[in-house]
């Protein structure tokens, strides 16, 4: 094991000694946002420890990997070009490879040696060969980007890369090739699409997308199970149209929750200034300046029936907040329990800027919080309007206001910073569960949280940065946490190498690590494809 490695399995405070000075840590953090080199030919990893014999498959990850084209850098870190990367695990060995996604946005930008598509916070660089009028028209005819650098979804037996545009890019995990591109907007009337869909028990997939206009809606999209011959998105339909509180300043969202019978959507306090977005291209404004945090806007939790898409009339509200990632949600005794990683302000929005991230990033803290929403059977029969929650084991409360809205006060599940949460999804999504895994404090920790006992187990390498942890269940496992946790660990120190760490899902002890002789990006999200 390298010097500086520490394995900790006890609760800790949010302040963690890194063993390095603040300035040096910021320098190492900034290097996470240097452009990476691709490794198209698989390389063997050096193994220490013992990889479980049953673990066989591909740990497939997505995220930005190149932050400039020629002399033109992107403005927003999320606009970096997608670098697909994977760890192939088989018979105790690991091979690593990566390749820039050959999207139209990437290929066209490389050919033109400039940015040719708009991004979240980046405007396309005008073609110097066009006159002013042609440039003006081009600004309003630029199509949605297919730089799908956030996540993956499995449609039938194929895998598609996702971002928050309406484009989905079919990729081959074995060769890291692009095979096709489909556009959600050709099937349903949406302008955006979530990068965090949910899988139904019967094979249907549910996603969300917004449609902007005189009336703005947040739409729940149902994609029925089909086959390639029918078209991947054939039969997709809008199951529910949730009207925005403000069509001019609708809420931004990145994910949503699903239980056995309901969807839960949070209309949060982060808003999009639609008029400003529409004219940003004309005046050359940074598009990310059109997103902001409204500290006076209460967050709303909207409940929708899965059966027919009906919106429950009861309005649930909580203090202004921002949520990027839901953890899980489930139903219990006429309550809906919603767990999510929440920010109390919009400081994290500053981290959209590549310049800010290369300067160390804004200090932010998202906490895992539990909201409990009492349903009508509880509300109409409760003897008190002050505390409607009858579930035991939680300090979350809900009270009925005079105007009929329900005010929800969440419980903090863990007082250590939590982001990029993952659960044993296939077995426990939408169901009562006990454990989740996430990135912890200082981006140097992986954390296992017990939501019942409110305790944590931590693994850390303070010299490195951790990515999103993925839980892989052991075949035929009986316990929720019986399996392993995979995490890509990024070492930005000169001369050091990044590695894949494999942790025991129960004890959180390190089982093995696979050190890679290649560039490994910090990435965003990933999946495990079981062989």
SS summary, helix count? 7
Distance between the termini: 29 Å
Strand content: 35-45%
Give the beta-strand count: 39
Rg for CA atoms? 23 Å
**How would a crystallographer describe the biggest sheet?**
6 strands, antiparallel
Overall pLDDT score = 89
Helix/strand structural class: mainly beta
Spans where pLDDT lies below 50 across 5 or more residues:
1-19, 130-142
Shape: globular
Helix content: under 10%
List the keywords.
6-stranded antiparallel β-sheet; globular; mainly beta; 531 residues; disordered N terminus; 7 helices; single chain
In short:
By secondary structure, the chain is mainly beta.
Characterize the structure shown.
Helices cover 9% and strands 38% of the residues. It contains seven helices and 39 strands. The strands form nine sheets. Strands 2, 4, 5, 8, 9 and 39 form a six-stranded antiparallel beta sheet that branches. The chain is mainly β and 531 residues long. It is globular and about 65 Å long. Strand 36 (483-490) and strand 37 form a beta hairpin.
């Amino acid at each position: 094991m390298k010097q500086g490695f520490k394995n900790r399995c006890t609760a800790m405070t949010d302040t963690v000694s890194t063993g390095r000075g603040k300035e040096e840590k910021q320098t190492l953090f900034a290097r996470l946002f240097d452009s990476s080199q691709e490794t198209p030919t698989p390389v063997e990893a050096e193994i220490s420890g013992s990889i479980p014999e049953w673990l066989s498959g591909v740990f497939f990850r997505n995220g930005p990997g190149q932050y400039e084209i020629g002399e033109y850098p992107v403005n927003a870190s999320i606009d970096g070009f997608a670098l697909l990367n994977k760890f192939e695990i088989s018979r105790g060995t690991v091979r690593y490879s990566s390749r820039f996604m050959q999207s139209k946005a990437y290929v066209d930008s490389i050919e033109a040696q400039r940015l040719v598509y708009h991004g979240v916070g980046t405007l396309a660089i005008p073609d110097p060969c066009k006159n002013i009028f042609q440039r003006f028209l081009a600004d309003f005819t630029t199509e949605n980007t297919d730089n799908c650098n956030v996540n993956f979804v499995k449609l039938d037996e194929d895998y598609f890369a996702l971002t928050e545009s309406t484009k989905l890019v079919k990729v081959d995990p074995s060769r890291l090739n692009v095979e096709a591109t489909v556009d959600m907007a050709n099937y349903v009337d949406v302008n955006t699409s979530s990068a965090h869909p949910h899988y139904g028990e019967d094979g249907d997939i549910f996603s969300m997308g917004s449609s902007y206009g005189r009336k703005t809606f947040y739409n729940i999209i149902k994609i029925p199970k089909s086959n390639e011959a029918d078209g991947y998105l054939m039969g997709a339909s809008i199951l529910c149209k949730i009207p925005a509180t403000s069509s001019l300043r609708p809420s931004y969202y990145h994910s949503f929750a699903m239980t056995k019978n309901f969807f839960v959507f949070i209309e949060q306090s982060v808003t999009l200034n639609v008029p400003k977005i529409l004219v940003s291209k004309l005046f050359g404004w940074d598009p990310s300046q059109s997103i902001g945090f409204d500290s006076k806007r209460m967050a709303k939790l909207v409940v929708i029936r899965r059966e027919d898409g009906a919106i429950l009339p009861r309005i649930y509200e909580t203090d202004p907040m921002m949520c990027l990632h839901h953890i899980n949600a489930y139903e219990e005794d006429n309550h809906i329990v919603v767990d999510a990683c929440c920010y109390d302000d919009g400081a994290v929005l500053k981290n959209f800027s590549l310049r800010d991230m290369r300067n160390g990033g804004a200090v932010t803290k998202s906490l895992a919080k539990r909201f409990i929403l009492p349903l009508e059977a509880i509300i109409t029969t409760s003897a008190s309007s002050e505390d409607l929650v009858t579930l035991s084991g939680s300090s979350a409360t809900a009270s009925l206001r005079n105007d009929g809205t329900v005010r929800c006060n969440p419980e903090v599940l863990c007082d250590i910073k939590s982001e990029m949460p993952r659960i044993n999804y296939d077995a426990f999504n939408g169901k009562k569960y006990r454990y989740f895994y996430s990135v912890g404090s200082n981006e140097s920790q992986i954390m296992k949280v017990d939501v019942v006992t409110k305790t944590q187990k931590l693994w850390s390498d303070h010299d490195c940065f951790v990515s999103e942890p993925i839980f892989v269940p052991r075949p035929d496992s009986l316990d929720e946490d019986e399996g392993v946790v995979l995490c890509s660990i990024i070492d930005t120190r000169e001369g050091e190498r990044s590695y894949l760490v494999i942790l025991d899902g129960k004890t959180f002890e390190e089982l093995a690590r696979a050190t890679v002789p290649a560039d490994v990006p910090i990435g965003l999200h990933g999946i495990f494809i079981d062989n």
